Amino acid sequence: MNNNHFYVTTPIYYVNDKPHIGHSYTTILADVLARGHRLLDEPTYFLTGTDEHGLKVQQAAQKNNTTPLEHCNRTVIRFQELWQKLEITNDYFIRTTEERHERVVQEILTDLYNKDLIYSADYEGWYCIPCERFFTEKDLQDGCCPDCHRKVESLIEKNYFFKMSQFQKPLIDYIESHPNFIQPAHRRQETLGFLQKPLSDLCISRPKSRLSWGIDLPFDDQYVTYVWFDALVNYISAVGYKTDEEQFRRWWPASYHLIGKDILTTHTVYWPTMLMALGLELPKAIFAHGWWLSQGSKVSKTAMAEMTAAAKPANPMDMVDRYGVDALRYYLMAAMSLGQDTEFSEDAFILKFNSDLANDLGNLTSRAVKMLEKNFAGKLPPASEPGDEETALVAACQNAVKAMQNGIENMQLDRGIADVIAAVREGNRYFDLQKPWTLVKEGNIEKLGRVLRNTAECLRIVSGLLYPVMPGKMSELRRILGIRQDQLVPVMKNLGKWNILPDGAELHPLEAPLFPRIETAKAKFDESVKAAAKPVPAPAPVLPNVIGIEDFAKVSLKTAEIISAEKVEGADKLLKLQVRTGSEERQIVAGIAKYYAPEDLPGKTIVIVANLKPRELRGLTSHGMLLAAKTADQLTLITTDKPIPSGASVG
Ligand code: MSP
To answer: Which bin fits 482, alpha (ψ -120 to 50), beta or left (φ > 0)?
Structure first.
């Protein structure tokens, strides 16, 4: 097991699909993690690619009067061009039609066949053409595919099967003894739940009479390989399994397979059992992120085809053309809490851009750089020991370094980014408090130099921390700060230190704002509403219902992990939750059904009032109350900023 290497993968995308914001998200996420681990000075390998076999490709090629491979060659470009545009730094782009991959799949099939782990039998069941998956009668929902809810076809035919059932027990044992194998925790529970039912063997062949576009089975030329059995192998064929032992030993097992939650079973059941059968180590972690939604539904090719133009989320290419690649990368990383579903909207994108990047980071940069140009001829004033006035600024920057490192290592990028922006806000606060414009008037050049120098150090740290997210803009910022060309790519160990910029470094002129505000009719309107709503400063704070600390101490607040959640029959607003606080479990009934779907809650760590007298709601006993922030039409649960065990006291 190699612990000092970082090997990250994305799903290989169906070559037929038009890449949308969902595919872009997983790939950008992998890129940010890969760049983040390079920042931490770890050898890193980043793999993405395309899944090119299967019925849909065969049908599309027929429709276009071309061969399937020719069709793939034409369509794969959409992904490759988009990844280039999004500044994706993958080390390899695998296509399942490449010769090396096909050979490895065949060798694996031969090995498993020889080990007696593949057998032939008559298959009787139901097939979903769009999903290319077989189902048994009991899997179907209302007679339709349980995944896409479309009609299925009945089938009886000879096929080949992988003895997946043989690995059910070892897989359960493995998942139970490796708590980080499937992340986040509620997806682990989902897989364990799935594994409670007996696991069937996996049909891994398709008769050529029905589908010829696939990898031939080496032991029966009338069949091709089931597309998932072929696709999953990409994670090892790309790093040299059976072709380059040294490369394979270097990178396998993967550190993270990033996937959307739609392909959880294939990755956490099919793939690990295939690896067990081959006698290979399992990946260290499989992380299933949530979906980007548009008006509450998952963004997908089919959903987009059915949407009105107004409801359609912007195409990633258009977003890049309109706002720049870094702005899109920033939004996708900052706005999605990893593991949760998030609504994608251009309005939300513009708000976040204007607030974090134009107002906070862009503004701090132009304020500091302009004053340095004007008062120090664009040269960096000398360093000095930070004093009391800098304590909060230095602390905010150090906290940002820790948070970003944690974000990269523990899949909490949105939190890391939020703490970096908090350091930028502290930079702006420091600037406002020190009033450098007054220092200019007073001729206090020594102090002016100190203030500008410290602001520049804050900007250097921020530019390094946000470099994995916005490589283009952050390189530009680093160049502006006078960092040498060969040091534009940051290293984490310098980001934790103060006074790293060389005294007298020549700054690059700031020709245009780093992040020009996006002016839209809506953004202007929001600004005016915000300005109108600004409270008039009151002479002294008025505190309603003041309580003493002794009153507060009566309330026992604790962290709790949600284990399960379900609707309360006949009560639209209520959900019934089972939560764990330390070693104890309890039931809480909460009026949050309008704001949360039950399936999105398990795994969240919330805060509860633990010593509230139990009360009855609709015949159910609620043992305690959860905390949530509310406005007239919004509600959000209070969760914790960093992972902490349940049962921890809050106060
Ligand atoms: N070809 C298979 C994967 C094989 S991996 C061995 C496949 N391809 S796909 O083109 O459908 O891509 C699915 C992946 O795209 C999801 O797992 C997710 O990473 C990404 N997304 C697609 N739509 C998405 C959203 N709406 N939101 C977030 N990501 C989603 O499945």
So the answer is: left
Q: Which of 76, 263, 293 to mutate to test the pocket of ligand 1 (most atoms within 8 A of CB)?
A: 263
Cis check: omega of the bond before 184, within 30 degrees of 0: yes
pLDDT tens profile 246-259: 999 999 999 999 99
Please indicate, yes or no, if residue 140 is contained in any of the structural domains.
Answer: no
The CA 129 to ligand 1 mean position distance, Å, reads: 17
Q: How far is CA 199 from the centre of its chain?
A: 30
Beta pairing partners, 379: 506
pLDDT value of position 542 = 41
Q: Among 480, 495, 510, give the residue marking a domain's end.
A: 495
Looking at residue 132, its amino acid is E
Number of neighbours of residue 519 by Cβ within 10 angstroms: 12
Residue 642 makes CB contacts below 8 A (sequence gap 6+) with 406, 412, 415
Whether residue 12 has its Cβ less than 6 Å from ligand 1 = yes
Q: Residue 106 has which token pair?
A: 């065949």
Phi, psi of 447 (to 5 degrees): -70, -40
Q: State how beta strands 292-294 and 625-626 pair.
A: unpaired
455-485 confidence digits (pLDDT tens): 999 999 999 999 999 999 999 999 999 999 9
How does DSSP assign 41-103, residue by residue? T--EEEEEEEE--SHHHHHHHHHTTS-HHHHHHHHHHHHHHHHHHTT---SEEEETTSHHHHH
Kindly state if the Cβ of 238 falls inside 6 Å of ligand 1: no
Domain that holds residue 568: 549-650
Copy the structure tokens of residue 164.
């997946």
CB 80 within 8 A of CB 193: no
Alpha-carbon distances, residue 403 vs 185, 333, 393 (angstroms): 21, 15, 15
Helix (H, G, I), strand (E, B), or coil: what is residue 432?
helix
Q: How far is CA 226 from CA 101, 131, 160, 527, in A?
A: 14, 12, 10, 54
Q: Residue 394: give its domain's CATH number.
A: 1.10.730.10
Indicate if ligand 1 lies below 6 Å from the C-beta of 13. yes
Residue 300 CA to ligand 1 center (angstroms) comes to: 9
Q: Is 250 helix (H, G, I), strand (E, B) or coil?
A: helix
Distance 11 CA to ligand 1 centre (A): 6
User: b/e for 254-284, b at 16 or more Cβ within 10 A?
Assistant: bbbbbbbbebbbbbbbbbbbbbbbbeeebbb
Residue 399: inside a domain, yes or no? yes
Q: Is the CB of 263 under 6 A from ligand 1?
A: yes
- Please name every residue paired with 92 in a beta bridge, in sequence order, or none if there are none: 47
The CATH number linked to 578 is 2.40.50.140
Ligand 1 atom closest to Cα of residue 290: 28
| Tokens (6 digits) for 210 | 């029905």
Residue with tokens 């409670």: 196
Task: Using the structure block, give the residue that is written with the tokens 């992988």.
Answer: 162
| Shared domain check, 601 and 472 | no
| Cβ-based neighbours of 24, under 8 Å, separated by 6 or more | 82, 86, 316, 328, 332
Within-domain flag for 144: no
Q: What is the end-to-end Cα distance of the chain in Å, rounded?
A: 42
User: Phi and psi of 244, rounded to 5°?
Assistant: -150, 85
- Residues of the chain scoring pLDDT < 70: 1-3, 302-313, 521-551, 583, 632, 642-643
Q: Residue 539: what pLDDT?
A: 44
Whether residue 265 has its Cβ less than 6 Å from ligand 1: no
| Amino acid at site 579 | V
